[in-house]
Amino acid sequence: MQILPESPLVAAPIETRFGVFIARFSEIGLAQLSFPHESQPIATCSIVSPQIRSWCNQTEEALQNALQNGSAQGFPPFDLRRGTEFQQRVWRALQTIKAGETMTYSGLAAAIYQPTAVRAVGSACGANPIPVLIPCHRVLAANRKIGGFSGGLQWKELLLEIEGQDGFVRLI
DNA sequence: CAGGATCTACTTG
DNA sequence: CAAGTAGATCCTG
């Protein structure tokens, strides 16, 4: 079930103490956030609407805070149209997990009233287009193991550590 | 149709 | 305990 207008996105680099993240905006909000990558792509367009500039500032502010103490606030609107209905439900549920708290894949499945779709929930987490701000890193496996992370487990560990959750057991 | 960021129950060192 | 196995489950491309 895709509902995609497929509009072009405006990319903006965001410098943090952990590297340069890249945020991409559509006409209705932040659509994607990627972790620092080796390659330093991006043809930066300096002429963007004040609307996007504003969202960009909010994103930067929120990201900086998230990476500093885990307390992020003042988010720009999110454009999650890329996701299927199922994925959007999961991503919405993710946003209810507060910083410093933690959840399990099965708990999340139960939260969206599909207690048996545990595995599918894991996949949906992996498809989260806005990591960090949509806290998929706060989801651990039921056995107190860390589970996986598409951006690389190091990031998940780092984020959890920043939020004071370091009691989990590493999986591998 | 195969393949995941899972889970539970069970069996073995 | 830790580690490995089997089967159940269900969204995706």
Describe this structure in words.
It is a single chain. This protein has helices spanning 50-69, 85-94, 105-111, 118-126, 153-162; strands at 10-16, 19-26, 29-34, 103-104, 139-140. It is of the alpha+beta class. The longest helix is centred in the middle third of the chain and has 20 residues, at 50-69. It folds into two domains: 10-69; 85-162, Arc Repressor Mutant, subunit A, CATH 1.10.10. The chain is 33% helix and 15% strand. Helix 3 crosses helix 4 (118-126). It binds a DNA duplex (13 and 13 nucleotides) through residues 84, 86-87, 104-106, 109, 114, 116-127, 136, 139, 141-143, 146-150, 153, 156, 171.
| Number of self-contained structural domains | 2
CATH architecture of the largest domain: Orthogonal Bundle
| Oligomerization category of the chains in this entry | single chain
Radius of gyration: 16 Å
CATH fold descriptor of the largest domain: Arc Repressor Mutant, subunit A
Strand order of the largest sheet: 1-2-3
